[in-house]
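W.,

You were right to be curious about this one. When I first looked at the sequence I had no strong expectations either way, so I just let the prediction run and decided to look at it fresh. Below is the sequence, 171 residues in total, followed by the output.
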Amino acid sequence: MLFLGTLEGARIDLQHISIEPCKSATLHYTLISKNGESKDLTYKMEGEQYARWGTDDTIIYHLLCAKHGLHYKPYEEPEFFEEVMVWKDEATGEMKSDLVKYPNPKYNPDANADYKPLELPTTSSGSTYEDIRSVHNEADIQQIQSLQQQLDEQAAKLKTITELLFKNGSL
C-alpha cells in the first residue's frame, strides 16, 4: 500500500496495479475522506494515458490525486525517529520508559527541494477533473447500442449460413 496525497485530511492509498501489457493498467486504490469514510475504487488507465506512462510511476500518483482534487506530495524521510524504550529498574523492580530520539540515516534535507505541486486543470463547471467515460454518458450509450446492433446482425447472418450448410449436407 502506498500513501499518495492529502487535501484537508483526505488521502489515497494505492493497493495494487493490474497490467495488461501494451494495452492498459487497472489501478486499485482506497480513497479516505477527511471524515474517515473510505471507498475502494478502481481506475483503468488506457489509450494515450497508458502510452505516455513510461517508467515514471509518479504519473500514476498525480493522476489518481488529480481525479479526486488532491495534490500528490512525495514522501519525505523524517530527520529523526522517536521510539519508546522500556526497561525494568533493577533496584526497585519498577517498569520505566523514556522517549528516545535518534537521527534517520536516510534523511536528506534537499530531497524534495525542487518539488512543486501539479497545477490541476479546471473544467467549465469549476471542478478539477471529470471522468466522462461512463455507461451514463450519452455518446457511450449510443456507441454501445450501435455495436450491439452490429453483433445482432452478424449473428443473424451466421445463423442463416449455418442453416444453408446443414440443408446442403456440408455440415
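Here's what jumped out at me. Residues 76-114 form one domain. And, maybe more interesting for your project: The chain has a mean pLDDT of 80.

Coffee later to discuss?

I.
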